[in-house]
C-alpha cells in the first residue's frame, strides 16, 4: 500500500504547533477533518480512541518517530496523515527520546489487512535514515508530499 | 565457530497480524532472553528485538513463520516466543 493510497496531502502538517502528546494528536486529527477525511461529529471520539490506544502502550517506537492510530467505525477506508514537530514532543517513547515525526492512522473496524499494509510501508521507509532525516528537515507540507511520492517510487527503504 | 541454531515454525494467530502492538509484545518478551532471535517470513528476516523490522514484515493472520534462535538459552527463548504466537499475542480480539 503506497503512501498515496492513504495519506491525504491536505492533511499533512509540516509544523505542528502543540508541544504535548495529546496536543499533537488533536492537531493531526483536526488536520484530517480540515481535509474532509473524517466527520466533525466523530472528531472527539477518534481523538479519545487514539489516546486510549496510547494508554495500552506508546506508539513512540524510538528514533524520533510515533505511529498513533486507531480503528474507528466512522471511516470506511484507511485515512492517514503525517506531522512534523520542530521542537519535538514527549511521547513516552521506548527509547525515552522526543518524537519529531508522526504518522497518524484511522482504519475501518473490519479491515486489519489495510492497517497492516500501511504500517508495513511506513516501517520500511522509516528504517531508511535518509527518509527520516529528510522528513525531519521538511519545511512545508509540499516538501513532505514530494518525499512521500519519492518513497512510493522506491527511492528509499529496502 | 557457528553457534547451533534452534528453529520453530509458528503461525500468526491473532486477528490483526504483526501490527505495532504485537511487535511491541514480542519485543518486551525478548528482553528477558539473551539469545539472538529472528523471525523469518519467506525471504524476509526480522530481529525479534527490533520493532520496525517486525512491522516491516506486514505478517497477516494465518501467515506461517519460522523462528530462529542462537546463543544462550535459545530453546527457552523459542519456547516462550512460540507460546506467545499460539496465544495470539494475548490480544483479546484475537
Overview of the molecule:
The complex is a heterodimer of chains A (158) and B (94). Chain A is of the alpha/beta class. Chain A has helices at residues 21-34, 43-56, 112-126, 129-137, 141-152; strands spanning 60-62, 65-66, 69-71, 79-89, 99-107. Chain A contains 5 helices and 5 strands; from the N terminus they run H-H-E-E-E-E-E-H-H-H. In chain A, strands 1, 2, 3, 4 and 5 form a 5-stranded mixed beta sheet that branches. In chain A, helix 1 (21-34) runs antiparallel to helix 2 (43-56). With 94 residues, chain B is of the alpha+beta class. Chain B has one domain: Histidine-containing Protein, Chain: A (2-Layer Sandwich). In chain B, strands 1-4-2-3 form a 4-stranded antiparallel beta sheet. In chain B, 36% of the residues are buried. Chains A and B meet through helix 3 of A and helix 1 and helix 2 of B.
Amino acid at each position: 500500500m503506497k503512501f498515496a493510497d492513504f495519506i491525504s496531502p491536505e492533511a499533512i502538517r509540516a509544523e505542528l504547533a502543540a508541544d504535548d502528546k495529546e496536543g499533537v494528536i488533536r492537531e493531526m486529527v483536526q488536520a484530517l477533518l480540515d481535509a474532509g477525511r473524517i466527520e466533525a461529529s466523530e472528531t472527539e471520539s477518534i481523538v479519545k480512541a487514539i489516546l486510549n490506544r496510547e494508554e495500552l502502550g506508546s506508539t513512540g517506537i524510538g528514533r524520533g518517530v510515533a505511529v498513533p492510530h486507531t480503528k474507528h467505525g466512522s471511516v470506511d477506508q484507511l485515512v492517514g496523515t503525517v506531522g512534523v514537530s520542530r521542537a519535538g514532543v514527549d511521547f513516552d517513547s521506548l527509547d525515552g527520546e522526543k518524537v519529531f515525526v508522526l504518522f497518524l492512522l484511522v482504519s475501518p473496524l473490519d479491515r486489519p489487512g489495510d492497517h497492516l499494509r500501511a504500517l508495513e510501508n511506513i516501517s520500511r521507509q522509516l528504517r531508511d535514515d535518509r527518509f527520516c532525516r529528510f522528513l525531519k528537515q521538511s519545511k512545508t507540507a509540499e516538501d513532505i508530499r514530494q518525499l512521500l511520492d519519492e518513497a512510493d517510487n522506491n527511492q528509499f527503504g529496502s | 565457530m557457528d553457534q547451533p541454531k534452534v528453529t520453530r515454525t509458528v503461525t500468526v494467530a491473532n486477528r490483526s497480524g504483526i501490527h505495532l502492538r504485537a511487535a511491541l509484545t514480542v519485543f518486551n518478551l525478548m528482553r528477558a532472553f539473551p539469545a539472538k532471535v529472528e523471525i523469518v517470513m519467506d525471504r524476509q528476516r526480522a530481529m525479534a528485538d527490533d520493532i520496525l523490522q517486525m512491522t516491516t514484515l506486514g505478517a497477516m493472520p494465518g501467515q506461517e513463520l519460522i523462528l530462529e534462535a542462537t546463543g544462550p538459552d535459545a530453546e527457552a527463548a523459542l519456547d516462550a516466543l512460540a507460546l506467545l504466537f499460539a496465544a495470539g499475542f494475548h490480544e483479546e480480539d484475537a
